[in-house]
Amino acid sequence: MIDGENLMRIQEPTNKNRSRLVFLFGIACFLFVVLAVRLGWHQIIRAEEYAQMATDQQTSDSTVQAVRGSIKDRNGRDLAISAATNTIWVRPDSVKGNGNTPEEIETNLIHQTAVLSNYLAMSEEAIREIITSDRKLLRIAKYVDMDVANQIREEKLAGIEITEDVKRYYPMGAFACHALGGTTDDNYGLAGIELAYNRYLAGIDGRWITNKDNTGNSLSYGTERYYQPRDGYSVILTLDANIQHIVETALVQAQERTQADRVMCLIMDPENGEILAMAQTPEFDPNDPRVPMDPEEAAIMETLSAEDQMAYWNKMWRNFNISDTYEPGSTFKLITSGIVLDEGAVNLQEKFMCGGSIKVADATLRCWNYPHSHGWQTLEQAVQNSCNPVMVQLVQRIGLTAYYAGLDQFGLTEKTGVDFPGEGYNILQKKETAGPVGLATMAYGQGIAVTPVSLLTAISAYANDGLLMKPRLVKALVDAEGQIVEEYGPEITRRCVSSQTSDDVLSIMESVVTEGGGGTARVTGYRIGGKTGTASKPEGGGYSDTDVYGSFIGVAPIDDPQIAILVIVDTPKGVLYGSQTAAPAAKVILQEVFRYMDIKPQYTEAEEAVLRTGKTEVPDVIGQSMEDAIGILGGQSLGFVIAPKTDLYEDLIVTDQYPRSGTLIDLNTKVTLYYE
Amino acid sequence: MREKALKQLKEGDFILVLLVLGLSIFGIVMVFSASYYNALSKFGNPYKYLIEDSMWVLIGWVGFVFFSFFDYHYLKHLSWPLLVIGMGLLFLIFTPLGLTINNATRWLDFKYFTVMPGEVIKFSLIIFLASFLSEDPTRSRRFFKGILPTLLLAGICFAAIYKQPNLSTAGLVVLLVVGMLYVAGLPRIWVTATFIGGVALASLAVLAPGGEYRLQRVISFTDPFKDSLGSGYQVVQSLLALGSGGVFGVGLGQSIQKTLYLPEPQNDFILAIIGEELGFVGVLVLMAAYLGLIWCCCHIAIRAKDYFGMMLAAGTTIILSLQVLMNIAVVTASFPPTGVILPFVSQGGNAMVIFLSLMGIMTNISRQAVPSKRL
User: Fold this and answer.
1) A311 in any annotated domain
2) Which of A75, A421, A611, B271 is the most buried (most CB within 10 A)?
């Protein structure tokens, strides 16, 4: 204890104490200056660098998705639209730190896992694995419906974030799937129109730059910049959903009827090159493009290896009408006819001899009815009879150079330039190496392969006064406000034949339907021109005996052509001929399309008589090829039976028929056809 | 009388009162600015730290007023009890009362409030040493009668605080004791010896078992960016805040680094937020204020009318200078991150009350001081 006396005995501080204090203060002053300099170093010299690092960690730069434009048919019906969906994200760090004690964290984690598993229909193990991973931010689920997303939002789970984004949706499912194509998960065009017009459809994403706190939440202050997204344009197709629907229905029926691998159809407006319908079976659903629509096929696909799956998808998504080539067969005779007519190498009265075969260089090229022969025929009759030797004689007249020049004129030696990705190249014989035999076989459509779109475009020129049009799939681009941004009008590629030639070929095409093998495409009351074709599919180095492309190409109505149509049946089973496979499908389509387009029938006297009596005269088909015979009978609304039954594709010739020609029989009666 | 009172007020360092008042009000503002986002995210109440801090400041000012009227000579009577209390609290840490946060047991949990014995012991030591040395000023020159017991006391405190672990406060306490001894008149040879001893002790602390944790802190101090997500995280965030502030700052309340980037921005690293919001200029003004305050304290020590007052004032001056310097050094990556608060400004607690009380004692010393003329 300090007593009172001690308290009074006050010690005086000395000057030494004071000077030491001042010395210490001096040291403090010095250190203050040093630290001030150090501070200045950070806040002035290094400031920019530090500020940049700070900005990097403090700024969130998020994309504001532009809405992808929709795809509509020519009448404005939505074929592909973009709809908002939700994506659920998680920040695992927040989940793992949700609570003060390990037990509390575990409880919260279990609760969170259960809630998410319940709403998202995912297993608890899977969710737990995701929300406790080492990543900073990752996705739990996408394409979550708005109401589910809202329910999850209501749960206020730690570390769970929900973003709204846009998903591509095809309201009509598989409808026009090959034309539309599809998109990737992040809305980039994958195929078809989606890919070709991706640039316009996609729009320009906006950005939202804002300051955020260390857990990613936006701050209400600091910098904020918002760049408005520019929504994509909508694409208005030339396709007509009604015609497309007619076509797709007919193709499904045709595939069922012929048991074909695939059936394709392309319809074009010959006057302006607009593609009105483009379809093929089997279809896929672009909403779920990786799963075949046929459950059996889907099951098979599941078992394939990843590589084979990819191949399977590519085949399923591939648009045959544009990307693939096929052997046109006899339909190509229409092109040959046009070229030689336009060259003035032949007149329609002139007759040519078919001796059943023709010798070209060292080769003997047979007509399909060899050892029989067609005898003397005009060009028109030769096309009706699908006579090969006459075609060979015709091209020999004009020669290789003129023939290839003709093919150039028809645009068959180049791409059509259709606004669709992945257009295939036609496979013609090389001009330099074709030689006389190559030229001769090409004349009747063998040894070449063309894309459906290029052939239909070429044939359409006959229906357009000889003007070759560029085929088009898109009419216009429309912005989000519905204003037309860009309009695509008809584009004339060139005049490929004279007006006279096109009229001549049209009349030949009409005669094929009314009198020749194209009759199965005939629709009573309408003037239709066309030609069927059957070509063996290449197989190994040669040609298949059983697998064929049966096709029909046509124009209607002849006096005022409004549509050009091409139907291709890939590998039908049973009866293989174009007249039996493709032409009937074309007939169904034309019938419906005429009705839809409000083209009124105009019956001839004979047709009216048939309609009145319900009876028709049996035509004479003896000596015709089986293919043509079927077509001719079809033209009179008569059916057929082949005896004996055959599945093999051979150039069969009708040797006898029952009932005999000239007999009056009921419509739709079957005529039995015999062959050797 | 009145004239004398006015003079006393003047001598009682009007400037000191102004500076302390200014600093504590500035502190409340900055604590609120730095903490509201943190408080809002953690507790849903942006005013949590503001309210707590204001309360501590208020209590601190009660202490200030009390001690400014309480004749400091009576503190001599309290020197032993205060030391016993201070030491007792230090050892209570190792009882279940100790509160562990972030692997360090630096607090005592008294349910309604927490006490930091490391802060209390500073107060106890200043008063005890001032009293001990003033009883016989020759003690500072005599080894067995003065120097050894003093250093032993410092050593015990150091060991106890070091165990928490809280190396910086332990070091501060030793520096405080050594500084007071120095002012008291420690022979030069001893000054040198202590300096060398201090250095040796510091290196021993790093090399001793468990030193890895401390070594890590030292490493992170030399290049905080090397481990910017680990041991260097706080300092990196502090530097980014300073850099963002630049010369003039982003403006009061506009700091972004305080939005959960810099942990506990209202505490040890509040200067970083001040630097971000008010810029280099703002921090310079603040540093000038501190330097002014330190000079005031120094001046009071010099003018103190007796040895006890001089030592009290000197101890206060030393601890104030050390804390300010250390805190700025940590925030500017010039010293390992330690956990030393910025007096009067960092979010209050025991330290706020103790510093304001010490300032109250300073004004009391000043009132009784000899007029400047006599010096």
Assistant:
1) no
2) B271
